[in-house]
Amino acid sequence: MSAFEQKKYRNSKQRARILELLRSTKVHPTAVWVYEQLRKDFPSLSLGNVYRNLNILVETGAVQELRFGSTFDRYDGDVRPHYHFICENCSEIKDLSLDHDLLMNSRVEELLNCKVNHHRLEFYGLCDKCVARA
After folding, report:
1. pLDDT, tens digit (0-9, with 9 covering 90-100), for 21-50
2. Any idea where the domains of the chain sit in the sequence?
3. Which residues contact 71 (CB under 8 A, 6 or more apart)?
4. Tens digits of per-residue pLDDT, 63-113?
5. Which residues pair with 65 in a beta bridge?
6. Is residue 6's pLDDT more than 70?
7. Which helix (DSSP H) or strand (DSSP E) does residue 122 occupy?
8. Which residues contact 34 (CB under 8 A, 6 or more apart)?
9. Band of residue 1 on the pLDDT scale cut at 50, 70, 90
10. Which phi and psi (to 5°) does residue 3 adopt?
11. Cα–Cα distance between 7 and 25 in angstroms, integer?
12. How far is CA 2 from each of CA 5, 13, 37, 62, 83, rounded to the nearest angstrom?
């Protein structure tokens, strides 16, 4: 049984379009960006609707919410384990083509005598565009 069925979420055209949009982009958008992209197609769409639908998509595991301590959370349609690079100047977020290191989980388990379910790793610095401008 899927998470949608467990919570009795109805199918929604807006939610389906938000998911499609997130899976089609690599920009790791904010809710406001999603709203701006979709409001032409859905005139009655509100920012509140976008946030509610994003929360449902996160809750059901269809997208991931990226919290980096900035003012606005970002969203990623790629839910496979992967790492990110965050530019400290322009806030661009890039997916990294690095193998997800599961050995790190077992190292932490051994170190702390615990059970690790998953991990997230981010790299911070200046993106190629900001380096070129410097």
Report:
1. 999 999 999 999 999 999 999 999 999 999
2. 3-76, 83-133
3. none
4. 999 987 766 799 999 999 999 999 999 989 999 999 889 899 999 999 999
5. 75
6. no
7. strand 122-125
8. 18, 21, 22, 50, 54, 75
9. very low
10. -65, -35
11. 27
12. 5, 18, 28, 11, 26
CATH topology for the 3-76 domain: Arc Repressor Mutant, subunit A (1.10.10)
Per-residue exposure over 1-19, b if at least 16 CB sit within 10 Å of its own CB, e if not: eeebeeeebeeeebbebbb
Q: 83-133, which class in CATH?
A: alpha beta
Cα maximum dimension of the chain: 53
- Asked if the model's pLDDT at residue 2 lies above 70, the reply is no
First-to-last C-alpha distance (Å) of the chain = 52
Side-by-side strand order, sheet with 122-125: 93-96, 83-87, 122-125
Amino acid identity for residue 49 in this structure? N
**What is the DSSP track for 57-120?**
HHHTTSSEEE--SSSS-EEES--SS-EEEEETTT--EEEE-----THHHHHHHHHHTS------
